## 1
Amino acid sequence: MDIVNKIIVATLPAIPKSIVRKFASPYIAGETLDDAVRVVRNLNGQGMLATLDLLGEDIHERPEAHQSRDQILEIFDAIHREHLDANVSVKLSQLGLKLDRQFCLETAASIVGRARQLGNFVRIDMEDSSCTDDTIWVYRQLRKEYPNVGIVLQGYLKRTQADSDALIREGLKNFRLCKGIYIEPAEIAFKEHDAINKNYIAVLDSMLNQKAYVGIATHDDELVRAGYRLVKEHGLKSSEYEFQMLLGVRPELRARILRDGHRLRVYVPFGKHWYRYSIRRFKENPQVAGNVLKALFSHN
Ligand code: FDA
């Protein structure tokens, strides 16, 4: 990130929320479940699948985890009622992972159980490296009882190849593979674009080689090209993998992937806690953040 972008990112917290909201709008479906349903119906109408994400991360008390659980159960009911082609992504910190992993497991199990009753699926998002072991632990426990749950692994972590191999050996073969969004130390994570991409491609190749179902989650042309090449080399049908992208990011790439005959799932975040998610997206792409600043000044 160059110095101008660093300054832009550092200035973000000082920007009025109403302006951040304006620039965040392509990336979030809205504040309510009804907003999210509308966006998913529209994506489905264009031939895309969706995964819904109720925004909101760390919680501090158990009742907050139960609140998140109840809201997530409502999402599954809405998907069922509205006949949407969508599943749900959850962050375990929202369900109490940092309070007590056993408690989190029980909360997550009620969600995965309900999803199973409705013929649906839960994707466990991966958070920062302080959560990796416990997230994988919860996933393993859930899979003892439920087939309808998968996990996310991050291409930037040096441990990911080993985690992927270990899970696949146990028969746990449903992944989303992304680069990883959190800032991690160089001892545990690749930091350079080329090194991250190299590891991502190696892990993807080995997952597909071992017949895992992979959500290839990226907006990076190089990784999309590698995805095309690898699914071809492994002789996969279009039902045996999918591409995944975030709402609002590179719609032209989304259209191309669909046109080329691949399944594409869009990650649709919504909810009252949109602010932190938006700041994270802006930090990833300071050009967008730069527009927020321009808007600020043009309003003066
Ligand atoms: P890269 O960052 O190199 O971006 C490639 C290009 O895409 C950029 O040059 C730019 O043009 C465009 N682009 C990327 N981000 C943009 C943005 N915000 N706005 C506008 N343009 C943008 N991470 C994690 O740690 N845990 C998780 O569970 C998930 N889950 C997840 C689900 C899905 C469906 C996706 C697509 C991504 C995630 N991520 C994630 C985020 C992921 O780890 C990563 O940070 C982003 O996808 C950015 O990496 P890319 O592979 O897109 O490449």
## 2
Amino acid sequence: MLDGAVTLEHVNKLFGERTVVNDVNLEIHAGEFFSLLGPSGCGKTTTLRMIGGFELPDSGRILIDGRDVTHDEPETRPLNTVFQSYALFPHLNVFDNVAFGLRFEKPGSVSTKSDKERVMEALELVALGSFSERRVPQLSGGEQQRVALARALVLEPSVLLLDEPLGALDAQLRARLQVELASLQRQIGITFIYVTHDQHEAFTMSDRIGVMREGKLIQVAPPREIYEKPATIDVAKFVGAANLLPGRVVSTGVVEISGVKFAAPQSAPMGDGMVMIRPERIHVGTGTQQAIIERVTFAGSSLRIALNVGGVKLVAEIPNDENSRHLEENAITNIDVLPDAVRVLPLN
Ligand code: ATP
């Protein structure tokens, strides 16, 4: 059996009178890249800190590989943490910073490799094998982050907790390290639990995402499902742009928005709901429904088109290519919204 399965059972945390983590139930699989995603203050970090043993839940249990660790000290749990601030020692070189991680090793733990081998292996993992002699001030932000990662990995934990570890880096470097982190996780196969408020980051790297809001875990699913089939209006709004309009499913596969009919999936529940249509799922220029182009906004690789469909205002996003060049404001065009581009969400 693979190690590194983490279970949260009815976990609650209060700070003073305020419940910041509210009855969270979650099963993270061994070897999974799992992200906790949500706006600032929703309780992600507190949840991660309880898994790490830095905070004690007010009620509920935390299990790692079936063992109840709720009250165990951080250093006795089979996990390690990478924080946003790397907290490296500037006076030590890269090798010694990583070797420092070994000091936290549990007494009596057995490793057949020498410490030197283990440090070098951890540095190779993060592609810093040739940097062992370098001093911390001689490293870029991205390299420092990788040293912090190596320091956490040198102990060979079953679970690695990462709290916005790329938060301090610029956008380009972040994008590169996201790819590196995801492939590193797949290579070493340990469980990563990653906290972020950046949906792109969560989408790029994760096997599954847990979306949190106001202390509650509101949806747990793979990235594509979170984006295409959000469970609630809040999830739809938080992960990407969305047209959200009140409507009513009037018959199987037909939804009416302000008197205008659109195709909907056969499975859409009858009655009132919030209709979600992602902008990139609206085809503009061809289709069966007439629309007026009210505005065309240039956004580099794409164009945002504000449409009026019989009084219903929709925003479409289409690629900036030879097909979109001819679209002009105030012109009439045809659009298509395919049934599977439409989701009808519960109103609350
Ligand atoms: P961010 O992305 O901004 O870090 P988060 O989702 O990780 O947000 P938490 O850090 O878990 O959120 O905080 C949840 C709430 O609990 C916040 O309102 C925060 O101010 C509060 N909080 C966190 N730690 C403490 C503490 N030690 N004492 C009191 N309140 C706290």
